[in-house]
Amino acid sequence: MGAVHGMLSLIYWVLGVAAFAMSAFALIHAIRTPARAFAIAGKQTKQLWLIILAFATLFSFSAAVQFILSIGLLSILSVIAAGVYLADVRPAVKGIGKGGSSGPYGPW
Question: What whole-number distance in Å separates Cα of residue 53 and Cα of residue 87?
Answer without folding.
Answer: 14
